[in-house]
Amino acid sequence: MTERKINRGSEIRAKGKSMGRERSGVSADPSDRPSPQAGGIKATSLDEGARGGLSSSVESAEGSPAALAERSLTLRAALFLTGRIALMLAGIAVMGLGIDIVVKADLGNSPISATPNVLSLGFTAVSFGTFMLGWQCFLVLVQIALLRREFRLVDLWQIPISVFFGVCIDAFMALLGPAAPTSYVASWLWLAGGMAVLALGIVMTVVSGTVMNCGEAVVQAVVRKTGARFGTVKVGFDLACAALACLCAFLFVGHLAGVREGTFVCAAFTGVIVNVYMGLYGKLRDAARSRRAADSGTASECCTSAETVGPFTSE
Q: pLDDT (tens digit, 9 = 90+) per residue, 282-295?
């Protein structure tokens, strides 16, 4: 009897301990408990897997064909714009060389610089460069009056470009030094060469499609409004500049000064040479486009034939 009571008490105590462990969440068997080390390894592996998946998705997005194509287009656009700006600056420099050759011919200034030159002769206290800068600013105002809302703010870069233009003129004049024609016939040859070089520089600035020199920008504004040929408007503009220089000479100097026969010849034929250059440029551009079209057509035909008659064609 006594043994039964003792066993009964021990069973009750054992059940109480097991119930307490279940309520506290602790397993009675230590082997059933989860290993903290195993859980830590599992969590760490999941975290690293998530990070690896995110980095791989970012790398795949950056290295996708669309992203690479966008980068290639951006690089091409930057290189194209850089080339256009370089062409424009080179054209301004070539124009400066052409004007210096015309001046060296000693048959009169070029039409675009004739009026500032005459004004510097009438008002000796002001330099030719100062009048030239004022003349360029006046031409910018003429463009604003012609184009109005169509005038672009980027075209105000014509003013610093005019400063670069003046620097090129001074640099090439120093480079030419004492070189000058020795006869009247040689002067006309120098004038013809200067006109050819000047027209080439004008065409380079126009083809660049960026900011042009003030004189050519006025001509381009008239072309946009009237639809006339650039060279034809250029002839009219140069003749108007020569006539204005003659008027200023009689008003402020008292006689015809700074304007000679070469000024009017340069005004009448520089635009004609520009038209010739533009015609040649148009032919070269059309030939290049047709060649590219032919190459692309040949490539598409090759791709089509490769798809139609491949190495695994079925009978």
A: 888 888 888 888 87
Token pair of 81, please? Answer: 């714009």
Tokens of 305: 């034939």
Q: Tell me, what amino acid is at 192? A: A
Give Dmax over CA atoms of the chain in angstroms.
154
SS (H, E, C) 224-282: HHHCCCHHHHHHHHHHHHHHHHHHHHHHHHCCCCCCCHHHHHHHHHHHHHHHHHHHHHH
With 0-12 / 13-18 / 19 or more C-beta atoms within 10 angstroms meaning exposed / middle / buried, residue 243 is middle
| CA-atom Rg of the chain in angstroms | 41
| The predicted structure's pLDDT at residue 285 | 87
Q: What tokens does 85 get?
A: 């700006």
258 — pLDDT class (breaks 50, 70, 90): confident
List, as one string, the DSSP characters of 160-210.
HHHHHHHHHHHHHHHHHTT---SSHHHHHHHHHHHHHHHHHHHHHHHHHTS
Tokens at 268, concatenated: 């009448």
pTM of the full structure: 0.66
Sign of torsion, CA 265 268 271 274? negative
Structure tokens of 32?
């059933």
Confidence band, pLDDT 50/70/90 cuts, at residue 8: low
Extract the tokens encoding 258: 């700074």
Angle separating helix axes 261-308 and 111-122, nearest 10 degrees: 150
- Selection from 245, 265, 263 nearest residue 255 by Cα: 245
Q: Which residue has the tokens 């009169």?
A: 108
